[in-house]
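subagent[fold] <- orchestrator: predict structure for attached chain, return tokens only, no commentary.
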Amino acid sequence: MKSVKLGASIVAMAAVAATAGYARDNIQTAGSSTVLPYATIVAEAFGENFSFKTPVVEGGGSGAGRKKLCEGVGENTIDIANSSSRITQSDIDTCAKNGVTEIMEVRFGYDGIVFASDIAGPSYAFTPLDWFNAIGAQVVKDGALAANTNKTWDQVAGTLGTKPIMAFIPGTKHGTREVFDTKVIEAGCKEAGAYDLYFAASTGADEAAKKADAVKGCHAIRTDGVAVDIDGDYTETLSRIAANKDAIGVFGLSFYQNNTDKLQVATMNGVVPSAETIAKGEYPVSRPLFFYVKKAHLGVIPGLQEYIDFFVSDDIAGPNGPLAAYGLVSDPELAATQAAVAAGTPMGPLK
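subagent[fold] -> orchestrator:
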């Protein structure tokens, strides 16, 4: 990456930083493939401008990163989990069971989930309803739930053309999948009336159980090869599209923006995804991006506090920083995040 031009406050922070004699002298992070390029940019800039070693940044998916964070406390466990979806109560419970009792939740910006296809292929204008009717396991036919047999996009909506339905979607360990399921598939399921049918068919003991069954039904995806889970990162999805020109892949906005020579993006509900439409709240499929810090490692792992301060600084995560240049939508409440990070404020109960 290109060297990052830093403001005076960050330069001063770097000047006073010094390493100490610890058994592990580098920061270790893992998790979201969406956050991976942002964290890599920060880690490389941190290594260039501070006396600490460059942090180790690995992918693996949001869920996998949070699982690693919760393995315990100590130099043989990671310090930070990068995540494109919010931590769950199950994660928090696992952390607590393994002695990770204080976690700092850091929201550093926003990203969109986009639907892109080969640049030379047809263009698409989608709605959540289209995607549910394309890849949902069951769809509504004559007022009842029935197995989804749609094979081509014109069977979903006449305006979408006659190409075969072939979707490459994030695997279930990815934070992108959680948002895709909720904001696209579940939204389309409700619009189609399928949610109500799943709710009515539920044998759950109470309303909460019936709602859970309905959501589970909505999130069920076809298993006949029309939709393929991608467990790797976005580069794998891109290579699949290169090999299947009719396919459509689900990506983070920033990845698409850095591959516009290969991909074209679809609209969702008539809105083109961009940093501007996400910042204005116009594009419907966006999400906050997080990293989670094991507070017990602050003051133990050299440079950890300096790294997280650096990550959320105006010079890095602000609207004119390198993360925005890569595609991040800067958080309008970044100043509050900076204050919480500087104070070492652990997250409270989930709301």
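orchestrator: received. Logging for downstream: Residues 19-110+288-343 form a domain with the D-Maltodextrin-Binding Protein; domain 2 fold (CATH 3.40.190.10). The chain has two domains: 19-110+288-343, 122-244.
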